[in-house]
């Protein structure tokens, strides 16, 4: 029997998330997280799932990503799932930015590494950490295929009319300024899962996908291909998010520089880390915001209303882009769990065929489900995302080819 296991790695600047999956049946064998890498109080939590084992957790200094991955390998080995296993077919890596170059999952070689590194200026927070994870994994298993799966790849099917900004073409091309989009693995997975929920082929379905977590993005998917998405050159554009502003007049930046005497770094921090919901009301947890609203907190209510207003605008805009919409799918932490967000997002859009059934919307669960009335013209769905499974699926398909 050929190897069927795929280890999925998501390397952040100070963390590594991982899952080991068996692609013969898409089952999870283990998962875990290493965080606070480089600190004395680093933490590793490992959960073996294959044999119903209990989670193991320890804290202590983990100097760098090399040490982190070696610690992960040791934990997997304790469960008979080590990186030296002949059943391991490949390691799949989440890479945030692939630019225009990478339109599909790619086996990593030196040329691929060089191109990911070249894209660091447009993804300075993410691509360096992704590179570190790949290089470390290659050093541990140089004989094993390492596959990069790019957040931006699903969005490379956008037409130029959606991807281009209306600025001088020569300047845009010189500095690679265009709309790339992010959360692509989630949008790809959810759009296909929504079609399956409807009992139809992805190429026959038009879906608006709303990935609502601390980071949030929307996409218009026509026949399985993305034709527009809300994030742009960076993940800052688009919806109101937990700490990011989303869409904003760019002249605000010049105003803050000239009048507020703020530096570019200060403005960057403001818009990416101190804006969105946390900037509006001091909280970026939707559960806490809803609790405050229930207690009559007007600041929380305003933050929620601004969040919903922007979300509703994108639903309407992508309805216009697609022309025909078969489903609107909510996913990620807020999208999957905040029934009040889902209800408010489609309220007043009955003329577009959108509505939620209150009883169905109140149900919580881990499976894809419809929350619209049975006679609704457009299906409204909750579809839990599974980015790790998507990365593993793409990795395994590529290695199989």
What form results from the Cα inertia axes? globular
Strand content: 15-25%
- Summing up helix and strand content along with how strands pair, one would put the structural category as alpha/beta
What oligomeric state do the depicted chains represent?
single chain
Number of strands: 14
Strand order, sheet with most strands: 5-4-3-2-1-6-8-7
Which sequence of SSEs, written as H and E, runs from N to C?
EEEEEHEEHHEHHHEEEHHHHHEHHHEEH
How many strands, which pairing sense, and closed or not: the largest β-sheet? 8 strands, mixed
Question: Which helices and strands appear, and what pairs or packs with what?
Answer:
Layout (H helix, E strand, L loop, with lengths): L4 E7 L3 E8 L4 E9 L7 E6 L7 E4 L5 H14 L9 E8 L10 E2 L2 H9 L8 H14 L5 E5 L9 H4 L5 H6 L9 H14 L8 E7 L3 E7 L2 E5 L21 H8 L5 H10 L2 H6 L4 H9 L3 H25 L4 E5 H6 L1 H8 L11 H5 L6 E2 L8 E4 L4 H14 L1
Parallel strand pairs: 1-6, 6-8, 9-12, 12-14
Antiparallel strand pairs: 1-2, 2-3, 3-4, 4-5, 7-8, 9-10, 10-11, 13-14
Helix pairs in contact: 1-3, 10-11, 11-13
Structure write-up:
The protein has 401 residues and is α/β, with parallel strands linked by helices. 38% of the residues lie in helices and 20% in strands. Strands 5-4-3-2-1-6-8-7 form an eight-stranded mixed β-sheet, with helices on both faces. A hairpin with a 3-residue loop joins strand 1 and strand 2. Helix 10 (286-294) packs across helix 11 (298-322). The longest helix is centred in the last third of the chain and has 25 residues, at 298-322. It is globular and about 55 Å long.
